[in-house]
Specification:
The chain is α/β, with parallel strands linked by helices. The protein has one domain: TIM Barrel, CATH 3.20.20.80. The chain has helices at about 10-15, 20-25, 50-55, 85-95, 125-135, 150-165, 190-200, 220-230, 250-260, 280-300; strands at about 30-40, 60-65, 95-100, 140, 170-175, 205-210, 235-240, 265-270. Helix 5 links the parallel strand 3 and strand 4. The mean pLDDT is about 95.
């Protein structure tokens, strides 16, 4: 039987099935931290990956944004065979590894900086999901980067396809961190009814913007979405995807506690404090806010050889 994730060592995580991982997260009662990083930029520590840096600061789950399954690049990582990139990162960090795949419509009028431009290996297709699973990815997030025009309808369609392709092998998460260029006027980014549809289509985890990160996302609004996820048998992940991962530590602590009160099972902190990773001190501050010094230092100090 899987232990709480916050108590697990690398050897425990290495043996996890999909069901073990979901159970381990749920048992942690809102004390799991996911840090998103970008591997295609210069690492903050030059010859140490941003993912390793985030792990060292207390993250339990490492999410790789901009990860192309056809051309896997994590700068700072030495790996002779690109197909082993994820497995090597797991060896170095002992962490759960997830990636983002984006259901960007083929003819979408994207409004984004060149660095976010979609590539074939980052699209949310069944083929890419199978490649990711074969590489050792534990979790796939269906969401959209800034300005990519990803709609909830596109996420729902992709979710059905990915669930059929890899639903027994990989945890599937779906939702929005921000509008992703698909503004809906007065309608919220995500509704409780859409949460229900996502779960029915195969989502194990629902992404919800953290309170205070997008206009109108109050603690109560986030709680309603988290409640909808729980009522339909899924977990909830609150997300900071609006560059507030680069705010001061007091702001991070405030967001963390609001997310805890809203019902988050997983707390996500984004990748652009600077380009590629949250401010390191904010990863640790977030961890301390949701689970205290003891569990934070346990995660930071435990050797990957345990």
């Amino acid at each position: 039987m899987a232990k709480r994730l916050l108590d697990c060592f690398a050897s425990d995580i290495a043996k996890f099935t999909k069901a073990d991982l979901l159970s381990s997260i749920a048992k942690s009662e809102g004390r799991v931290l996911a840090a998103e990083t970008i591997g295609t930029v210069m690492p903050m520590l030059a010859d140490v990956t941003n993912a390793e840096f985030a792990a060292a600061m207390g993250a339990d789950i490492l999410l790789l944004n901009m990860f192309d399954v056809n051309k896997p690049i994590i700068n700072g990582l030495k790996c002779d065979n690109s197909a082993d990139t994820v497995r090597e990162l797991k060896r170095l960090t002992g962490r759960v590894i997830g990636i983002n795949l984006e259901p960007v419509p083929e003819n979408a009028a994207t409004e984004t900086a060149p660095m976010w431009a979609i590539t074939d290996g980052r699209r949310a297709t069944a083929e890419n999901a199978i490649k990711a699973a074969d590489m050792g990815v534990n979790m796939i997030l269906l969401t959209g980067n800034p300005g990519m025009g990803v709609t909830n309808e596109a996420i729902l369609s992709a979710l059905r396809n990915l669930h059929e392709a890899v639903g027994e092998r990989v945890v599937l998460a779906a939702g929005k961190m921000h509008a992703s260029g698909a503004l809906r006027g007065a309608k919220p980014i995500l509704t409780a009814d859409e949460v229900k549809q996502f779960v029915a289509a195969g989502a194990d985890i629902l992404l919800v913007p953290a309170p205070g990160t997008v206009p109108g996302m109050t603690q109560e609004a986030a709680k309603q979405l988290a409640d909808a996820a729980h009522e339909n048998g899924a977990l909830a992940m609150t997300t900071i995807g609006t560059s507030q991962e680069g705010a001061d530590t007091q702001t991070i602590r405030s967001i963390a506690l609001m997310c805890k009160m809203a019902g988050a099972d997983i707390h996500h902190i984004g990748d652009t404090g600077y380009g590629g990773v949250a401010l390191p001190e904010n990863i640790t501050a977030y961890s301390v806010a949701i689970r205290g010094i003891r569990h934070t230092y346990h995660r930071m100090a435990a050797s990957v050889n345990r």
